[in-house]
Amino acid sequence: MSNKKESFFINRLKSVGFAFKGAVLLLKTEASIKIQFTIGVLVTIAGFYYQISTTEWLIQLLAIGLVMCAEGVNTAIEAIADFIHPERHEKIGLIKDIAAGAVFIAAIFATIIGFIIYFPKVF
């Protein structure tokens, strides 16, 4: 019985390790997420500077996380699409455009959230 618990625990640790490795790989290799990460750091610094409320922190962190997660999923979709069909293909292009569009939508809404939080504080 204890073997199954150890096995489950060890498997969970391995899963977390793989996820961490994927996040680091994403940050090291993808220019878009580097920019988004930098913007996330800058608005986090702004949050401390302008002493935003707990609710504003929660919304800001959710927006940052949403954009970065969407970019990660977009990157994975692009990698799978390129693996399945390396040469240019209309349907693969459409799939990649839709995935990129999801990131764009998340980024637009995150920007709107940023304006709602910071515009009254700056002006």
UniProtKB/TrEMBL annotation:
Which keywords does the record carry?
ATP-binding, Cell membrane, Kinase, Lipid biosynthesis, Lipid metabolism, Membrane, Nucleotide-binding, Phospholipid biosynthesis, Phospholipid metabolism, Transferase, Transmembrane, Transmembrane helix
Tell me if Transmembrane helix is a UniProt keyword of this record.
Answer: yes
**Where do transmembrane segments lie in this chain?**
35-52, 98-119
Q: What is this protein called?
A: Diacylglycerol kinase
Q: Which GO terms describe its molecular function?
A: kinase activity
Principal location class: membrane
Family note: Belongs to the bacterial diacylglycerol kinase family.
Report which residue ranges the record marks as coiled coil: none
Q: Topology versus the membrane, per the UniProt entry?
A: Multi-pass membrane protein
Superkingdom of this entry's organism? Bacteria
Specify whether Glycosyltransferase is a keyword of the entry.
Answer: no
Name the CDD domains on file: UDPK_IM_like
Q: Which Pfam families match?
A: DAGK_prokar (PF01219)
Q: Where in the cell is it found?
A: Cell membrane
